Amino acid sequence: MDATQRVPRGACHEARDTDAASNFSAREVCQVLREVIFGRCSMTKMGQASWDEIYAGHFHVNADGWRISIYNDCDTLDYCEECVSPDGRRWSFDSGDRFGTDPIALLSTWEHRTLEQMLKDL
Question: What pTM was computed for the model?
Fold first, then answer.
C-alpha cells in the first residue's frame, strides 16, 4: 500500500485518493471502524431495524459518510460485507483480500466487543 492509500487518523472526515473508482483494503476499513470505536467519528444506522431485530443478516451503518454493511450472526458481530467511502471507493468481502483480512477480524478483542456493543445500542 502506498502513501496515498493509507487511512490516516481522522479518516472519517478526509478523502484518501483522487481516483474515486479505486478500491481500498480491509485495513483501511478497519481504521474507519477504529475511528468510530474511539469516538473520532459518529455512527448511525441506515434503516429502521435495530441490531436485535435483524438478528441474522446485514446491518447497515453510516460512519460520517462511510457506508458499511456488517453481518449480524444471531446477535453476534461476525464480519464486514462491504464498505463504500464518501468519494465512492469500495471494499467488499470478496474484493481480493487474502483470507483472514476481514476488517472485523483485524480488530483487537476489546475493539470487537466495543463495536458490537455500539451496534446493539444504535
Answer: 0.77
Q: How far from chain centre, in Å, is Cα 41? A: 12
- CA 57/CA 35 separation, integer angstroms: 24
Cell numbers found for residue 5: 492509500
Q: Where are the domains of the chain?
A: 20-121
Phi, psi dihedral angles at 89 (to 5 degrees): -70, 155
DSSP state of 3: T
Q: Are 57 and 72 in contact (CB under 8 A)?
A: yes
Mean per-residue pLDDT for 16-21?
41
Q: How far is 99 from 72, CA to CA, in rounded Å?
A: 20
Between these two residues, 82 and 93, which has the higher pLDDT value?
A: 82
pLDDT digits (tens, 9 = 90+) for 48-64: 999 999 989 999 999 99
Residues 6+ apart with CB under 8 A from 46: 60, 61, 62, 67
